[in-house]
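Example (one chain per record):
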Amino acid sequence: MTPPLGLPARRRLLASLAPAILCLGSAAVAQDSPPATIDINSLKVDVVDDVIIPIPQEIFSSLDKLGDQNWGRHLWKKDVKLDGNRSRTALIFGLVISDGFIAVQAEDRDEVKRIGREVLDLSGALGVQREVAGHAQAIIDGADKQDWTSVRRELDRARQTVISTMKELRDDALSDLVSIGGWLGGTRALAALVADNYSVDASELLHQPDLLTQISRRYEKLPAKAKQGEIFAKVSNTLTELQPLMQVNGDGAVARPAVVEISKLSTDLTDAVYAN
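Predicted structure:
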């Protein structure tokens, strides 16, 4: 269950994400008349200590405000190759959940079903398959019926079940990495969409330097044993490189070259996480 935000947390969220936030799926935004603004206080987030991370189902729903998008173009369709590194598996799990929301937006039934199977396999690698199996099957069944609302709900439930179970098992580092992976997947998709159809308003969705600072600090505090492997040095470097790019210029926009670079960095990191 996502904890409610108190006033200080809401203020931090507003400061981090104003004037808008990236967001993908469950908000049930009307396709024909999307609202002009985003109700930031209504968004669901993961609160990890003082770090507020938008959850994947929230990362994309505000993209409806960008108008019709070629979602199929941004489907990742990566084969997951596990190597026994559970920290990397947690990052991949977060990425796969984000990919699931993109596949739902594209209404790609076969891809959603494949992602449902990946969710099951990854949860097994994390030692929580029993807890997640029902959600994974519901994702597959929902895709068969093209019940996209149900699929969005079950993707988020699978994500939350893994996070909460990891916390119960005192694997807080893994739960943090699931959240960070989801944020990364959402940032990759958002930056690619904005780069394809750049506008000042759309670029504001990538203005999140304070959020990125919080995520970076939390990541650096993870124990060394949770960041073993070359991929984790790349995660740290990429978070640092993204920081200046997510600032606005004198026109109140994230400049187009910065958006293109955000897209490249987040795509390269995502690719490296999958390929490691």
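Caption: The first strand starts at residue 45 and ends at 48.
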